[in-house]
Design a protein that fits this description.
alpha+beta; five-stranded antiparallel β-sheet
Length: 99
C-alpha cells in the first residue's frame, strides 16, 4: 500500500473519530440535537426572563446543564439547571450579573 493511500485512510479515520466525538459530546451543530429538551426549556426561560437575549451552547455540569445568557453576543448571566424527579426544570443563576 502506498504512503499516499495510508495517509488518506488515516485522515479519513481521524475525521470519522472527530465526527463521532462531536455527536456524542453534543459539540457544534450537534448541541441542539443532543440536548433537544434542555434547549426547549432554556429557550422558554430566556424568552421569559431575558427578552431579546440568546444563550450559548449547553454543556453538562454535575447532575445538570449550564449555559451563558447573551445579549448582543456579550455574556449577561450564567445559568445552571437541573431536572427534578417530577420532570420540572429548575434554573439557578449566578448571583452577580456579569459585567
Amino acid at each position: 500500500m502506498s504512503e499516499k493511500k495510508t495517509g488518506k485512510k488515516l485522515m479519513l479515520a481521524t475525521a470519522a473519530i472527530a465526527a463521532v466525538y462531536s455527536v456524542a459530546a453534543g459539540k457544534g451543530p450537534f448541541n441542539k440535537y443532543r440536548f433537544k429538551k434542555q434547549h426547549e426549556e432554556l429557550s422558554k426561560y430566556v424568552d421569559t426572563n431575558y427578552p431579546e437575549c440568546s444563550y450559548a451552547p449547553i454543556t453538562v455540569h454535575g447532575k445538570g446543564w449550564a449555559s451563558v445568557i447573551l445579549k448582543a453576543g456579550k455574556p449577561v448571566s450564567y445559568v445552571y439547571f437541573t431536572k427534578s424527579e417530577d420532570g420540572t426544570y429548575i434554573f439557578t443563576e449566578l448571583d452577580e450579573q456579569i459585567k
